[in-house]
């Protein structure tokens, strides 16, 4: 049974006595240096998520944001350096993390954790891995670093909401990646403390990257945070200091960017000697879409089978998806973004449009990371008609379950109420996605491997697929010279457009 300590975090005046050992950044540093053993189920889940990241990266290697980021990395060769997905060679670790982080995030198809804030904690893996490869670390050290990164980001997301104040969620990722790198390298708490503060200070940005017409920066924002974390660690190792207390200061993040000078949060962190198990609270995606859409895709597929009358031309008058506050206001009609109903919208916008996703999943009975977003698919007249008949509405009970701390009760779905033109009604609900640990078909190792094989097919040679899986499944025991095998080399990749470098 975990005995997570709850740390009260609140703003402090500059003239208030506030010793360093009470700072949240110092507590995170202490967590990072705690040499507690890694539980076997946690180690197994790290392997799953490394495979998952590589799977979605393989599928994104030819997409423009990934091509551009890879081109920037290629302009920064280094020895020893780190690997970059898709190509052979070694590159400066911060730029390798930038390229790989963009590849992992581009399709919005890897793991997630949702609480007071939402997150994709798999974003910690590219920066920690890049530094591990560059510094000659072994698999055991890499494992410890990744586990710390997950723990810190998830614990921050459990307690501190960023989106409520229109701050992008990567403000939790900068500190978590810095802490994970600190664990990986065995740095002293003082150095990690400074790196965490610098990483947070440089990664607070607005949520406009996820509002309206969503741009290619959506994929790059977490990669930027990972790159910033590596640079923060480098500066801290050179003796440079950071703004402190970064969260609690009078002009710090909480007082000026979040809930203000009277705010107070209870941040759960493992006690000294307590295993870091937060990764097990996260979950991956079966479908390439925003996580709150996962369960709705599964419900749409089910409705298609149970109620074929919904597919008859003109059969549906309107559909209301009753769901949580967050789902309604971020990917639903509550966002008041007309782009969420625009057939010419970007892929990044469509994967944050629940009405679009539900319409296509209902009509097609499946979800494909390419075909479901194709312009001709989005513009199909019958789809547009159905899509524009779908709205969302906040239901207080689904909001309560979204924020529940009881895993058995927490839910990310809702209730669909469908009115047919002949007067009939269909009502159905779903709490969690089929792939969720409590879903109809929880993801296990075979599913992660199957996802990798599916997404890598045609991108990697068959022998490269098998080589990567063999290395990844041995992650905890890899020697330093084997760590460079945790990458993928594609059959071919597009040349990057020219920039400054």
Automatic annotation (TrEMBL):
It holds the Pfam family MmgE_PrpD_N. Transmembrane segments: none annotated. InterPro entries: MmgE/PrpD_sf, MmgE/PrpD_sf_1, MmgE/PrpD_sf_2, MmgE_PrpD, MmgE_PrpD_C, MmgE_PrpD_N. Residues 22-265 form the MmgE/PrpD N-terminal domain. It comes from the Bacteria. Residues 287-475 form the MmgE/PrpD C-terminal domain. Belongs to the PrpD family. This is MmgE/PrpD family protein. It comes from Amnibacterium soli.
